[in-house]
Hints:
Blueprint: H1 2-5, E1 11-18, E2 28-36, E3 42-48, H2 57-63, H3 67-70, H4 80-87, E4 91-94, H5 97-111, E5 121-124, H6 125-131, H7 140-146, H8 157-174, H9 183-192, E6 210-211, E7 218-221, E8 224-227, H10 237-243, H11 245-251, H12 260-270
Parallel strand pairs: 1-4, 4-5
Antiparallel strand pairs: 1-2, 2-3, 6-7, 7-8
Helix pairs in contact: 10-11
Amino acid sequence: MGQDLFQGEKVLAFDLETTGVSTHQDKIVQLALIGSAADGAAVKYERLVNPKRSIPYDASRIHGIYDRDVRSLGGFETVADEVADLIEGAILVGHNVRKFDFAMLEKEYLRLGRLCPQPKAIMDTLELVRRLKIPRPHNLGSLCSRHGIRLEAAHTAAADAAATLLLFWRLSVEHSPSFRRSIPELERWIVHGEGNSDASELGRGLNDLETVDSLGKIRRDGAHYVVSFGRHKGKHISEIQTADPSYVGWLLSPKGIECEETRNLMREHLR
């Protein structure tokens, strides 16, 4: 069903590896676009880029990219034109791509004083599995395992992108009635459902929420900030402020949340 729907379209899976998980502060170190051009020709684009800052050891342990691997390379500006040509007008597929990968990409173009290329549509498999009410966990590795997809070299951009594309096709076959829509209708349904009442009955887990700081201690749930560690794990910061103000005082110190920008965002939220 997915293949018929996207006949004659440029369809690219998109994934990044980065210096961290903050779309505001962190930078791209590797990107991949895997799929097919409108004429069916295979596309496999993978690049390392120099973030022009030290890559934190915790990030390197996950994706295997260290400062020595990118030291001699150019920054994002050296691949910006190629990436723009690929993404412009494409159907972009990714896991949490709307809130993380594409948001990170937009920030990189903003730093260059350029507009980010615009895909024809974004098909986010994280949003999709929530819409289909597939039980958690919703991380890419667990979903691939559940659907019989081998995820080799996990946390490399190309491997994750390819696995995400396979996951999308598999879901389009297993849930084909839901995919009998035009491309704009499908994207709208994935994001918004049939109506406001179509929210997932399973709710959202902490790992599904957008991270605010580079360590993922604070996550964003709509207009709220959620603590993802410690004795108040899973609670909104405003709720903790009422029940345990001394804990919030500690949280807003460098001993609690290391990132000053995140602490300031939380202070503004609590005013």
